[in-house]
Amino acid sequence: MKRIVDNYIIKEIVLSFFVVIFVLTFVLLMGKILQVMDLMINRGIAFVDIARMMLYLSPGLLVFTIPISLLISVLIGVGRLSGDNEWTIFRMSGLSLFQLSAPIFLVASAAFLLTLLTTVYLVPYGNLASRSLLFEIARSKASIGIREKVFIGDFKDITLYANRVPASGDFLEGVFISDNRLGKTLSTTIARRAYLISDPDKKTIILRLENGSHHTVSTSLDDYRKADFVFYDIKLEIDPQVAGLQQTRKSSREMTVTELRSMQKEPSLREEEKRDFSFDLHEKLAIPFSCLIFAFLGVPLGMRSHRSVRARGFTIGAILVLLYYLLRIFGEAMVETGRLSPATGAWLPSIVFGGAGLFLFFLSAMEIPFHRLFHLFKHYVFRPGRP
Question: Which of 201, 306, 344, 387 has the fewest C-beta atoms lying within 10 Å of its C-beta?
Fold first, then answer.
């Protein structure tokens, strides 16, 4: 009988889990729809590249949607069983809360391992792969998008014009460049020939000019300078979706656990940077651990009979998740200012919510109602005659 009950509870939780994670992930992806449409229509990016980009970014969303979906599914599943009195029947048949919660913690353990796999391996790989894909898109746009006798404004603060582009696209001839990167100073560069050079390691695109001149003039038109050159390099940036490609090293979000540990021992890093790397390292483990904490919270909070089980589950789940991530943001801010250690800041939400979850769970296991605990606290702390 115990095995039948376990399978029944697992089915109840898992079905809700997949529905909720699909809805949450879809809602989060909807926020990128306008940006995707702009890339496809105005930037001419292929749909295949857009699909690859969304695939690479999805692990970063799953890190948040998996724990949230688990909490909501536990609240809905246990709430539905309690609302139909099935949970009460299971308890009256001799099954303790620990026995009934075993299948729920089994699902939570699977969610923990899946989230751990995502944070440790999939998120760094996805972030690094998305940046590499953005660089490939930028490089192809820079080489394919340049057409002869057409002013190109796809580059940040630079307008490019080429009088002739051969069919091979290996070089440009009769190049004219209007450079607005200097702000108030007007800058114009003219060259006989130019080549596009890309550096995959540094994620940079260089336009190398040959045999030309560089002209600058102030806005008041009273200062003019001219400089002739044989070779002159201009760094190109595709604006605005591929910002950040010019990073010379991996960011902390693109590093694995081993790389983060090695970066902490780097002597050239400032103390603030070491704290950031240490916080990201602990966060990779703290976020998956939230799956187990949410399971402890979901079981006692879901054991309340209510007509609108799904609405109540979503409401309580949203409030708990909001409080959890507000506490996470608070811990991160304290770490950045040096008031908390990276380990304490990263694990602060887990400590607070884990303690509350264990307390409520064992309170429910001993069948002590919450209001009964409040009355006992009021009686012993605020009893009449107490000074």
Answer: 387
